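dumping the sequnces here before i forget
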Amino acid sequence: DIQMTQSPSTLSASVGDRVTITCRASQSISHWLAWYQQKPGKAPRLLIYKASTLERGVPSRFSGSGSGTEFTLTISSLQPDDFATYFCQQYNNGPTFGPGTKVDVK
Amino acid sequence: EVQLVESGGGLVQPGGSLRLSCAASGFTFNVYDMHWVRQVAGKGLEWVAAIDTGGDTYYPDSVKGRFTISREDAKNSLSLQMNGLRAGDTAVYYCARGLGYCTRASCYVCFDNWGQGTLVTVSS
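..and the predicted 3d for all of it:
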């Protein structure tokens, strides 16, 4: 199985900050990576797929980059609605998820 | 608007069975592969089953032989029959629409719409 790791596990930030989350795969997954946002008690929401393609309706302050084994999710200017947990997921070989990064208030 | 509504969760003893259902609306159900994904409280997510538009099914080793996914396109409905339940199966179970495809080798899919989830607790 392909293992996914994320860093940091928790990130404390303020509204307006630029936020970057890193996701690494245990082997190359090309560009087959998705990012999700999850708020407490809610289902995950797809933000980005194929490493950098923004899902319809997702604000443009979210962006994704990377290929191979290292990927990043960037929020260009953090908004109050963005405090949440973010998961990456590879789908190069069987869907597997990262452990999540919680973005909380600094 | 795409809607996925799960039901059927609850408390079950180890070794017991439970059947989850998912009612879909707002999209053409029979042209999408459908999936179940679970989340242990406060932890990560795990894909547990898939069914493609032709009715072929796919499972990870952790549930193979114990879980059975099925669909009824005429009713826009997805189900997950869970047998031989273990404490480790305790989780919130989500119904999800797939973006991608599955083959005999693997599933190459992410999930573009999710239900609100239903909690399954396996405990004596």
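Chain A is about 0% helix and 50% strand.
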